[in-house]
Amino acid sequence: MTQALLIQKVDEQYTCGVTDMPALPPLEASQVRVQVSHSTINFKDGLAITGRSPVVRKFPMVPGIDFVGTVVESQHPKWKAGDAVVLNGFGVGEGHWGGLAPVAQVSGDWLLALPAGISPQRAMAIGTAGYTAALCVQALLDHGVQSGDEVLVTGASGGVGSVAIALLARHGARVVASTGKLSEEAYLKHLGAAEVVDRAALSAPGKPLQKERWAGVVDSVGSHTLVNACASTRYGGIVAACGLAQGMDLPGSVAPFILRGVTLAGIDSVMAPLAKRERAWAMLEKDLSPELLDSMTRVVGLSGALEVASQILAGQIKGRVVVDVNQA
Predict the structure, then answer these.
(1) CA distance linking residue 191 with residue 168, whole number of Å
(2) Three-class SS of residue 32?
(3) Sequence-separated contacts (24+) of 198-203 with Cβ below 8 Å
């Protein structure tokens, strides 16, 4: 028996803990069995593990929306035993058993070859948060954001924000980091932020149109923060929206879109097509400094993931947390 993080719901009683993992069924056509080495805790994992939101769609469930590991058995023509692979999204950890266990069994169509220049631990230091950040940054660059342009990153000290800052700074943007943790100014500037601002300046209701400032925005917060970011984006600029830490609502105006031609780009990391995924991971391999990544990362075992899940929902996590699934 192997130890896994397992969510169960019996008579409306929702629990999550480290326990013996039930045996997996035989592989079906196109499925792959992976020996997992590392996973991580993303915001959605926090919701699933704590039961704070109805993320999990069936029980019992192994949470973990991403993982990295080695193929041990395959019924998929693309993969063979020994292949190093990474997975992000596709409903894993929600409707399909996820990565917070030493073994995972998934469709081979969901897997991506682990880039040669990224170690397994660093792949999960990136995780879905960092991969989402890369999708956001790619959207800004494709839109025309250039070196020297001023770009806002909200939720800056979190996983998406931390990686987005590092990538944008690497591409020469002047990054302004919005955070509720002004005590982390040194950390954010170490990642590449040129300026740090209090999130309170963006989180309250504001005017439909505000002073034009941003050529681009990476927003993982939503609600009033996203609305204010759009309202202060320059003519023809772009806002990449990928999160809802403040809320799912969008209490704003069409004014920035019809009067300034601002583009609001929705970034979906769960079902993104393979070509987008490969491009994002290629950017992470090429442009994300391993040293910067290590400086924003800590490692815990399976039992530590339970505490981290609550902390990430409370906004208490800085950077990235990797889960070594073979560690208690």
Answers:
(1) 10
(2) strand
(3) 199/154, 199/155, 199/225, 202/154, 202/178, 202/228, 202/229, 203/228, 203/246
Per-residue pLDDT tens over the stretch 16-59: 999 998 889 999 999 999 999 999 999 999 999 999 988 999 99
Q: Locate the DSSP E strands across 233-328.
A: 233-241, 263-266, 297-300, 320-324
DSSP 168-214: HHHTT-EEEEEES-GGGHHHHHHHT-SEEEETHHHHS---SS----E
Domain of residue 51, residue span: 3-114+296-324
Question: Has residue 271 been placed in a domain?
Answer: no
Query: Does one domain contain both 182 and 257?
Result: yes
Angle at 13 between CA 10 and CA 18, to 5 degrees: 85
Only one residue has tokens 């993303």, namely 42
pTM reported for the whole predicted model? 0.94
Treating both helix axes as pointing N-terminal to C-terminal, what angle do 302-313 and 43-50 enclose, rounded to 10 degrees? 100
* 85, 113 contact by CB (below 8 A): yes
Place of tokens 């924000």: 161
The model's pLDDT over 240-293, given as tens digits with 9 standing for 90+, comes to 999 999 999 999 999 999 999 999 999 999 999 999 999 999 999 999 999 999
Neighbours of 33 (CB within 10 A): 19
